[in-house]
Specification:
The protein is mainly alpha-helical. α5 packs parallel to α7, α15 packs parallel to α17 and α28 crosses α30. The two termini are about 60 Å apart. β3, α4 and β4 form a beta-alpha-beta unit.
């Protein structure tokens, strides 16, 4: 800020109500006062209601002696948002006519004056220690602790204080108001009522500005300054969770004013950004928008008062259902990483849309479809626990949902997720029911997926010949009009794996070549990496541990890129087997620990990934070579790592081993 004042004659501090614009301005004044021999004048404008009174207030503060601009001086205009239209031209006039004058403004909107430098005041840091607070404590926590200590000498902040500050968005006014509540409430009682923050924080802050005395008043002041269409958009936008993009805002909020919509929603959104109600978030080439929770909740109250909450949430859900349908169609193709990144960003809104659907009996059918359409997101992007929770909700509502493709899809997706989490009985029951329903109505896509799910469950139970027959049936079903993308690829890779387990290498390799061709032709990397894993298994069975490890690492890189937790743990346990075959037992034990770490971190069930007998054999080899104590120590080193560091370790090429120690010449084969 000090540098900004040096570089620009007009600096405007913007931000949402209560974020600390005035506090920051006063801090800057203390730092720079000595640089302005002509003095610093502060004009508090909250009580100035008429534009014509603005000039008089400023003239009264600076006096006629400043007209010549002989001495360098600073004018601070505090709380200027309601006078922006008048203040901009007046400040232009002052600066052009007074060469020695610099102006600092606090406002929820920029003035739009010539040469204006805008500085967005962000909420206080909540996490980390990079903010420079005493003792490395985040500023938000420090503020609460300081105010609390004034009421309760010796107060020591606990980790729950950071949680409270996070729930309050790091807004200084809200944090101070919460601290004052310690006069009459315990900290646990404050936390228990934080969801009703506007009622809770109705005490008085230490500020002479009446409209800053409560959080509701601070936010309400911004609301009063908005035009009717801005208030309507603010209310409509409150249904978004996390951040959102412009197309979503248009779809959910636009419409005729007479019907409660917002004409020209894009222009109105820009005005809300200017007023610091909505924040613009730029990451690379992606532009999104968000509101602080406190601002969102205020808008939500207005939406309920207007009687528009149900209709707006329905539009929100329909937008994200359409997105889920498009994701389902396009996932198995060249844009997988783009879809991965986008759906990660949209996860809070996807959850909100699903929660709305399952809370209302009239909306449950769409909730069932949406949960099922996100199958690849749950599985391939590492959100197995979320997926299982929503599919469980979907399956509980199936009796109330008309039968059809949506129900069939929910059954096989539910089976898939149950299998991943080791609930094999439920996986088999759901897949069997789906097969019965799907074949009866010639829903070949669902029938093929359900058959593959049955095959995978049989594989986990050790029924290899039966699993092979089911995978073959799944493949034929997809070929006859089912899912010729991910469904066919899944059947092919499953078939290849079981053929390899049965010692039928050439047939397995033929399936893998077809699988690779399918994935490459469609631009897929997700299922292609599963084929790399199977190829690595074939190389391992033939005694070429170095070549196997190369394929396993290729599989792990892609699975990690997408967040496929099951694929990651499967690849890591396979790398452990390759390390053991190469006589690197310490690495093998550590990788087994990493595999368990990933499984537990992502909500999988330990040791359900095939091949279980290979994993058990790896553990036996490493334990025998190292001894029980050293094996356990190495395993725990892997188990105790951070997930990202653990994956990086697994991807490291192993240290060279003497030629022939693994029964080969140590050279990796080229891929067929």
């Amino acid at each position: 800020m000090v540098r900004a004042l040096e570089e620009s004659r007009l600096v405007t501090l913007t931000g949402v109500g209560g974020v600390g614009k005035t506090r920051l301005a006063l801090r800057v004044v203390r730092e720079v006062r000595a640089r302005f021999p002509g003095g610093v004048r502060l004009v508090e404008l909250s009580s100035v209601r008429r534009p014509e009174s603005l000039r008089e207030a400023i003239r009264s503060a600076i006096g006629e002696r400043e007209a010549g601009g002989v001495r360098r001086s600073l004018l601070v205009l505090d709380n200027c948002e309601h006078l922006v239209e008048s203040a901009g031209p007046l400040v232009d006039e002052l600066i052009s006519g007074t060469p020695g004058l610099r102006v600092m403004v606090t406002s929820r909107r920029v003035l739009g004056a010539v040469g204006e430098s805008a500085y967005q005041v962000e909420p206080l840091p909540i996490d980390g220690s990079a903010d420079g607070s005493a003792g490395g404590q985040p500023e938000a926590v420090t503020l609460f602790a300081d105010r609390a200590a004034g009421l309760m000498p010796g107060f020591v902040p606990t980790p729950e204080v950071a949680l409270l500050c996070r729930r309050l968005d790091g807004i200084p006014l809200a944090i101070e108001l919460a601290a004052t509540r310690l006069r009459t409430m315990s900290f646990d009682q404050i936390m228990g009522r934080i969801d009703d923050r506007f009622s809770l924080l109705s005490g008085f802050a230490r500020t002479p500005v009446r409209r800053h005395r409560t959080l509701r008043m601070a936010i309400g002041w911004s609301h009063e300054l908005c035009e009717p269409e801005e208030r309507m958009l603010w209310a409509r936008l409150s249904v978004f969770s996390g951040d959102f993009d412009l197309p979503a805002a248009r779809t959910v909020c636009a419409g005729p004013a007479a019907a409660g919509g917002v004409p020209e929603a894009e222009d109105v959104l820009s005005r809300l950004v200017d007023r610091s109600i909505v924040q613009r978030v730029v990451s690379g080439r992606v532009v999104r928008y968000r509101m602080l929770d406190t601002v969102r909740e205020y808008g939500g109250e207005w939406l309920r008062r207007l009687g528009l909450e149900g209709e707006t949430r329905r539009r929100h859900r329909d937008h994200y259902l359409a997105l889920a349908r498009r994701f389902d169609r396009e996932w198995f193709g060249p844009s997988q990483m783009d879809w991965h990144d986008r759906m990660i960003r949209e996860l809070p809104n996807l959850r909100a849309a699903l929660d709305f659907s399952f809370a209302d009996p009239a909306e449950q059918a769409r909730g069932v479809e949406m949960a099922a359409r996100l199958a690849y997101f749950w599985i391939a992007c590492g959100f197995v626990c979320d997926g299982r929770r929503y599919l469980s909700a979907a399956l509980s509502h199936l009796p109330d949902v008309p039968p059809g493709e949506g129900v069939n899809r929910a059954l096989w997706v539910g089976a898939w997720l149950a299998d991943v989490q080791g609930d094999l009985d439920q996986a088999n029951d759901l897949a069997t029911e789906c097969m019965s329903r799907s074949f009866a109505v010639l829903d070949r896509a669902s029938a093929g997926w359900a058959t593959a799910c049955c095959a995978t469950t049989g594989l986990r139970w050790g029924y290899l010949p039966e699993a092979l027959g089911m995978y073959e049936r799944a493949r034929r079903t997809h070929e006859e009009g089912g899912d010729l993308g991910a469904g066919l690829a899944t059947a092919l890779v499953g078939e290849a794996y079981v053929l390899a387990r049965l010692g039928r290498r050439e047939e397995a390799m033929a399936r893998l070549r077809r699988h690779r061709s399918l994935c490459d032709s469609l631009g897929d990397i997700w299922m292609r990496s599963s084929g790399d894993w199977v190829r690595g298994f074939i190389e391992l069975e033939e005694g070429d541990a170095a070549s196997a490890a190369r394929f396993f690492r290729a599989s792990l890189r892609a699975k990690h890129l997408l967040g496929d937790s099951l694929g990651m743990t499967t690849a890591v346990s396979a790398l452990a087997a390759a390390a053991a075959r190469s006589r690197d037992m310490e690495r093998a034990a550590r990788l087994l620990g990493v595999s368990e770490l990933i499984e537990l971190s992502f909500g999988l069930r330990v040791s359900i990934s095939p091949p279980d007998d290979v994993r058990e054999a790896t553990e036996d080899l490493a334990r025998s070579a190292l001894g029980a104590d050293d094996f356990t120590a190495a395993f725990q080193r892997g188990r105790a790592m951070d997930v990202e560091a653990a994956v990086a370790y697994a991807l490291e090429p192993p240290s060279p081993v003497p030629a022939g120690t693994d029964g080969t010449d140590g050279a990796a084969r080229t891929e067929d």
